[in-house]
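User: Can you recover a sequence for this backbone? Please restate the input before giving your answer.

Assistant: Of course. Working from this structure:
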């Protein structure tokens, strides 16, 4: 069975592991810190085709901690899709969006502490499907409205967004409900990753109506325990 590799990146503590757990139907209020990289594999039914093929989705949850800056680049090989995670209540995690995507595309050894210049044309052959996840949506009432980082991240991604890129806002303490708008957005992203890697042709388009159920199906109930890649100093 074919598979796709999707990396999950973002600042340390922004909710990457919480997102993966929620996606797999096993939400955790306080997941342990990721040591190096944690890999989860799940089955996904790609439906924009007559055969409705099954694929393995590999979710590589990569630690954003500074102590792993020197080794993160080894996880960026053969990437098929990128999920960038940021916290709606942490401005820093959205402001450094550009830095993270540039690190992935260039396989830099470190994420710069300063804004990085990015030439989209230079990396056009490396362009990967992108999904942005805004976590802590349930905490937005606890933070002054002018500090909610919902729009700034979109501006930070203007250099990389295409017409199909989406931003999903989530409460990762809860499982992602079947046929919900967030699930549909995530399924569209999975479909784009599969289409791009295997050059599959879409036989129909998704309805532009928000909330319309996706025709692709995630078989996330068949959850595989994570294979954790750990590095110790």
């Amino acid at each position: 069975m074919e598979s796709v590799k999707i990396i999950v990146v973002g600042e340390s503590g922004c909710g990457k592991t919480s997102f993966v757990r929620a996606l797999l139907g096993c939400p955790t209020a306080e997941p342990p810190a990721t040591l190096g990289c944690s890999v989860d594999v799940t089955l996904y039914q790609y439906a924009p085709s007559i055969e409705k093929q099954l694929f393995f989705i590999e979710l590589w949850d990569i630690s954003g901690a500074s102590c792993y800056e020197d080794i993160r680049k080894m996880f960026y090989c053969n990437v098929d899709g990128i999920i960038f995670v940021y916290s709606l209540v942490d401005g820093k995690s959205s402001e450094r969006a550009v830095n993270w995507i540039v690190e992935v595309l260039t396989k830099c050894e470190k994420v710069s502490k300063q804004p990085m210049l990015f030439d989209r044309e230079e990396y056009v052959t490396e362009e990967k499907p992108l999904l942005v996840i805004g976590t802590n949506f349930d905490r937005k009432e606890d933070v002054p409205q002018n500090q909610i980082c919902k729009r700034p991240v979109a501006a930070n991604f203007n250099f990389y967004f295409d017409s199909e890129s989406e931003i999903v806002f989530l409460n990762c303490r809860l499982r992602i409900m079947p046929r919900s708008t967030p699930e549909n957005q995530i399924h569209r992203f999975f479909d784009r990753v599969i289409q791009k890697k295997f050059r599959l042709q879409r036989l129909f388009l998704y309805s532009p109506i928000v909330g319309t159920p996706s025709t692709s199906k995630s078989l996330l109930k068949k959850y595989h325990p994570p294979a954790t890649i750990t590095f110790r100093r």
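That completes the design. Residues 181-198 form the longest helix (18 residues).
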